[in-house]
């Protein structure tokens, strides 16, 4: 049972209404749901039985129970991403923006990579190779997670960087900035005990002020006429609608009306997912358009300008034959074990695959296949 911090229930009721607040409080005492979002470049159907499609995501599925994802080679191949259904709302709004081929997008506070990979799938479905997506995370420990997840996803049009928002300069480079800003985390209470422990009214005020500093710093790189998607995983008005009002007033933008998306709650300026009304956690999203006339689309320069990393270690080497592994052999490979391949397997550098999807490299010597899977990514669980 969650012991809600002092002041939380009152602020919640003031932000969403007493009746909705009661439903949220009850839902936060229940177990969280589990859901995945497919990588459409790698997988076309949900691999788990009895999954329910997520209405606001063409790639999302709600699962009836939590599998052991670590023991699924498809997970390590980047065939899907484990993401809360409410977090998929940002991708839903992004897919409705009026963009052109060559669109240049910045995911500003991107770790661990859920929204980045959703944006990547949407852009690739829409524009093929004609887009640029730069994913940024200022915290170095979180950046390592982001980079690994982008690498596993495997889209070469996605680059990663680690910069403070103030370090992006003042050149208007991006057609869209997605800012899922650090927040007080009220929507994550049943998944994150630390969010409960650290919450206070002062934390809410601090997070709202920090969000506004981040947005002020990044505003110059958004093109005139470009779009800002602002989101949080919290419920309160100060960090949500009030901050959106501040963006429009102080930075210069029009707040865009969002189409109703049941069962999300329509707030003054955005959409809000509330536990109890949705199976997932809390998520707020609003869309704004920067004042000024749209300019021509940008074509890839941010990768060079910001020295973006473009991870691609899971891609097959040009000179490496492919070799298909069964599930158990794939798990042993992901565990870091040496493999013994059948006599008909070619010797030399191989791209080892599972269900046709590359997992990584191995060097087959005949009597054994040396494991070249990165040590940092290896499974530490017992294989079964």
Describe the structure concisely.
With 384 residues, this protein is an alpha/beta fold. Helix content is 28%, strand content 22%. It folds into two domains: 85-305, 3-Layer(aba) Sandwich (Rossmann fold); 322-377, Archaeosine Trna-guanine Transglycosylase, Chain: A, domain 4 (Roll), CATH 2.30.130.60.
What does this structure look like?
The strands form three sheets. Strands 5, 6, 7, 8, 9, 10, 11, 12 and 13 form a nine-stranded mixed sheet that branches. A four-stranded antiparallel sheet has the order 2-3-1-4, with helices on one face. The chain has eleven helices and 17 strands. With 384 residues, the protein is an alpha/beta fold. Helix 1 crosses helix 2 (18-27) and helix 8 (201-218) packs parallel to helix 9 (241-252).
- Beta-strand proportion: 15-25%
N- and C-termini, Cα separation: 33 Å
Helix and strand composition category = alpha/beta
Determine the number of helices (DSSP H or I, runs of at least 4 residues): 11
Q: What's the SSE pattern?
A: HHEEEHEHEHEHEEHHEHEEEEHEHEEE
Ranges where pLDDT stays below 50 over 5 or more residues in a row are: none
What is the name of the CATH topology of the largest domain? Answer: Rossmann fold
